[in-house]
Specification:
Length: 89
C-alpha cells in the first residue's frame, strides 16, 4: 500500500510544524525569567511528551506574559486612577 505524494507531503508539513512549535516552546521556556504552576523540567517534559498539545498548555498555563508598554500611551488601570482628578465644573 503506497500513499500518494500529496498525503506524504501533508504529513511531513504537519510533523515539521509540530516539531518547530515544540522547539519554540522549549527555547521560550529556557529563556523565561519565571514560569507558573510547575518547574521548568516538568514543563519541558510536558512539551516533549505531548507534542504539540504540551506546548499549547505551557503557553496558556505556564508562561508568564508581561504587558507591553506602548510609548506615549496612558498608564493601565488601576494605576492611572490614583492620579486622576475630576475637573471642577
Amino acid at each position: 500500500m503506497t500513499l500518494p505524494i500529496a498525503a506524504l507531503l501533508t504529513v511531513l508539513v504537519v510533523v515539521v510544524g509540530a516539531v518547530a512549535f515544540t522547539v519554540y516552546c522549549l527555547v521560550d521556556l529556557a529563556r523565561a525569567e519565571e514560569v507558573r504552576s510547575l518547574s521548568r523540567g516538568v514543563w519541558a517534559a510536558i512539551c516533549l511528551l505531548s507534542m504539540p498539545t504540551g506546548g499549547i498548555i505551557y503557553l496558556m498555563a505556564g508562561k508568564v506574559w508581561k504587558a507591553r508598554e506602548i510609548p506615549g500611551s496612558a498608564p493601565r488601570w488601576p494605576m492611572w486612577r490614583a492620579h486622576w482628578q475630576p475637573k471642577d465644573s
